[in-house]
Design brief:
The chain is about 5% helix and about 50% strand. The chain is mostly beta strands. Strands 3, 6, 7, 8 and 9 form a five-stranded antiparallel sheet that branches. The protein has a four-stranded antiparallel sheet with strand order 1-2-5-4. Strand 4 (about 50) and strand 5 form a beta hairpin. The two termini are about 20 Å apart.
Length: about 100
């Protein structure tokens, strides 16, 4: 798994690419990126499945903010990103959430 950030010079936006690797999640039909940025709506941000079985999506996030998120695998299993900036306790369960920081 991994997160790649690109800070745009033209506007206060951090372009973030999230990637989930097949060898870390196994065979999956769908992966959704779920977090603060989409109000934790499970189907709001589907990830694109690549030929090799990895999943990816790129979204624009406001700079100078942090966002909690997780991945939802096949609508049933929640996983964190091993490349997250850090982890925080989730507000709705005992699980930890991944955190991405968009501070340059």
């Amino acid at each position: 798994m991994g997160i790649k950030k690109q800070y745009l010079k033209s506007k206060p936006v951090c372009k973030v690419t999230f990637k989930v690797l097949k060898n870390e999640i196994g065979e999956a039909e769908t992966v959704h990126l779920v977090g603060d940025f989409n109000h934790w709506e499970e189907n709001a941000t589907p990830m694109k499945k690549l030929k090799g079985g990895d999943f990816t999506v790129t979204i624009n996030l406001d700079r100078d903010r942090e966002y909690q998120f997780r991945y939802l695998i096949d609508g049933a299993r929640w996983v964190n990103d091993s490349g997250a900036d850090r982890y925080e306790p989730g507000p709705y369960s005992d699980a930890q959430n991944s955190v991405v920081s968009c501070s340059a």
